[in-house]
Design brief:
alpha+beta
Amino acid sequence: MPIYAYKCGSCGHAKDVLQKISDAPLTVCPACGAEAFSKQLTAPGFQLKGSGWYATDFKNSGSKPAASTSSSSDSAAAPAAAAPAPAPANS
């Protein structure tokens, strides 16, 4: 359940409230009883940093990376083997 920040526009009382997303927003201030209690816009409580979970967790799994690695080494060796040998010079 998310935590919402509320502040009273009348007395300035601030409070963090744990509520369900489907709950109705609070309107009555618990300190002064005025109908000026409203939600505040706050920053999220988590940050996503780094290169991402996909690149770090699943980078080497599956058959695609193994196939591309082996095909790149095979293709590097193939041109050397396919190159024609120089013809001997007749003098």
